[in-house]
Amino acid sequence: MARVAVTLTAAFSLVFLVEGVAHATAYGVSPCVSVLGGNNFSCTFEHGINSSGLYIDSEFADAESPFRIICNARIDFQYSDLNGQNYKTDRAPIKNGCTNDLNRTVHPGPVRAGKSCAMLYSNADLVATQCHKVFAANV
User: Fold this and answer.
1) Distance CA 128, CA 114 (A)
2) At a CB cut-off of 8 Å and minimum separation 6, what does 84 contact?
3) Which residues, 6+ apart, have CB-to-CB distance to 39 below 8 Å?
4) Architecture, CATH, for domain 10-134
5) Which residue has the higher pLDDT, 3 or 41?
6) Tell me, what DSSP letter sits at residue 53?
7) Full-model pTM
8) What is the DSSP annotation of 71-110?
């Protein structure tokens, strides 16, 4: 059974209008819990997006802990439309071993209106999800 320590606890978004194009930045941090040796350890999971309308220039996620408790882990990015239907998952390979800092950056390019989520897996369990809405701004 997957342990899930969940979504958006703190986030902000900025939209800049330059020459008719909406430039947006979204950033959020969620708590996560990793289980190692039957013990729960806390960590933080960050997710950020830099975009221009429905074009994501770059997207990153980062998991951090004061201890090396993020084990056999990966960070996936999943995209869903306005109806909540997932249409793309960018799955990372598993990083074997344990670390206290795992990060990943992608450059997805054009996306549909909806949301983008970063998902942290540790020892095959989903331990954190951080999502942001993606939309075309009317300028």
Assistant:
1) 20
2) 114
3) none
4) Sandwich (2.60)
5) 41
6) T
7) 0.81
8) EEEEEEEEEEETTS-EEEEEPPPPEEEEESEEEEEE--EE
Average the pLDDT over 54-72 and give the result: 93
CB distance 65 to 104 below 8 Å: no
Q: Largest Cα–Cα distance in the chain?
A: 55
Residue 15 in contact with residue 26, Cβ under 8 Å?
A: no
The overall average pLDDT reported for the chain is: 83
The amino acid occupying position 43 is: C
Residue 99 backbone dihedrals phi, psi, to 5 degrees:
-145, 170
Q: What is the pLDDT of residues 9-51, one digit of tens each?
A: 334 333 333 333 446 789 999 998 877 777 888 899 999 999 9
Calpha distance 99→87 (Å, rounded)? 31
Closest C-alpha among 8, 106, 121 to residue 57: 106
How is the chain split into domains, by residue range? 10-134
Q: What does the pLDDT read at residue 23?
A: 63
β-bridge mates for residue 134, sequence order: 114
Contact 104, 69 (CB under 8 A): no
